[in-house]
Amino acid sequence: MWTANITASWLAGFTVCLSLIISIGAQNLYVLKQAVRGQHVRACVAWCVVSDALLIGLGVAGMAQLLSSQPDVARWLGCGGVLFLLGYGSFALWRMWMAPDASVVADSTQVAPRGLLGVLSALAVITLFNPHVYLDTMVLVGSIGARQEGHLKWMFVLGAACASLVWFGLLSFAAQRMRGIFAKPMAWRVLDGLTGVMMLALAYWVWQGLPATV
User: What are the sequence ranges of the domains in the chain?
Assistant: First the structure.
């Protein structure tokens, strides 16, 4: 019975988290691009897994209720996210339209490597300045996990972290297997276009959802 409860809590966290993160979002696109380039892939996957587990754990511990009582914090966080997403999306679209085919390099050996700090900093901003991330992890998944009894809450968080690890691990593996596709400059144009549109749409969505000032 005890083992069954632990397994049920772990499985609940795994399935709920997996159902939410399997979508083409800003974070997934960023990890996809880094995996295709073969630059700091493991670090990106590790960041995504740890950040998901931490945010879900905070939600389970009740942090979502605390943040909901501080609308100014959510507003400033959202404004910063909008500015970053607008800049990131606009730059991606600029690359798609302005870079001549001769200079669009897809071979990861030809792309100037970015430092680990720069890669993780951009990923952190994409993750933490996106209010939708908090809605998914802290509010939705966290509130479900909070219903578990006692230490089973943390088995739920562990299950959610395992789902995150499985998804981002599979995403990075698939992306690396797709390097042949991205040997063509047009593939990078399409990815940049998809990234730019997604970022601008997300910026608009975040802006529309910002709490009004008092």
Answer: 2-208
